[in-house]
Amino acid sequence: MISPTPEQLQIYLDIATEAAMTAGAVLQTYWGNLEEIQEKGRQGDLVTIADKAAEEEIIKVLKRHFPHHAILAEESGIIGNKNSEYIWAIDPLDGTTNYAHQYPFYAVSIGLLIEDVPYVGVIFAPFDNELFRAAKGQGATRNRRPIQVSKTSELSKSLLVTGFAYDRRETPDNNYAEFCYLTHLTQGVRRSGAASLDLAYVACGRLDGYWERGLSPWDIAAGVVLVEEAGGKVTAYERTPLQIRSGRILATNGHIHDSLSKELLRVPPLSSWGNTAV
Ligand code: IPD
Ligand code: CA
Ligand code: CA
User: Fold this and answer.
1) Interior angle at CA 141, CA 137 and CA 143, nearest 5
2) CA nearest neighbour of 135 among 146, 149, 151, 150
3) Cα torsion at 199, 202, 207, 212 (round to 10°)?
4) pTM over the 0.85 mark
5) Domains of the chain
6) Which is deepest, 74, 119, 178, 208, by most CB within 10 Å?
7) What is the pLDDT of residues 205-226, one digit of tens each?
8) In ligand 1, which atom is closest to the CA atom of 45?
9) Pairing between β-strand 188-191 and β-strand 233-235 as defined by DSSP bridges
10) Rounded distance from Cα 74 to ligand 3 centre (Å)
């Protein structure tokens, strides 16, 4: 088992920060200036010149500093040393749909997986200049100040967030029933459109919990470290250890974790609801 030293983690964190800020600047230059927005295959799954240009910059920085590591990038796939235990999972533009519509909620997300476990995370939101950083064992920060998860302990008093994967039109496992059910049980469920920021917002206590299915490692690698280092909990829906490639995640402040997990596992199908509240 690899165990990086705190000094090594600090270096990874600083280089990831450099890459995220550079990519963030690229996203800002294209903001409102997109000539072409393409669909990647599935309806609604967009890619723009901004995604590609930002990703190029991140890859350049990471390759320069860590030529022996692998990179798993949303638009380029796996590149570099495919046998490496170190994989940078990068989403150059998380929240592409928001960005394409000039809805200002998007981020650059860069996470480092070591033997498939998230160790380092940097999420940069250029629209309001928020920089979230965390490394295993070293705490989490927002704009260089320590952050912590919320103290909310009852599901009925919580504010949650979720999202819907691009395959939602093709699968009955589309998260719609979960969204409605948990909207009844809580103070609300947001759908913000950027998984990385959803996790960062749980980490800094603005939100109490987050769940989603159909995700990729680049959506969540960075955010997982943030939530854990801010005192929260991240697992699979069943409270078993998170598998970063499973696509499913449950991340909370820790206090509502068990109750949210239990409710998620007993969501009644939408068709059984009729007009009555659950
Ligand atoms: C998407 C966003 C969204 C989530 C989707 C992701 P993208 O990433 O994070 O919040 O619900 O599942 O694919 O396409 O904007 O990078
Ligand atoms: Ca994403
Ligand atoms: Ca993306």
Assistant:
1) 155
2) 146
3) 40
4) yes
5) 6-146 (3.30.540.10), 155-275 (3.40.190.80)
6) 208
7) 999 999 999 999 999 999 999 9
8) 14
9) unpaired
10) 6
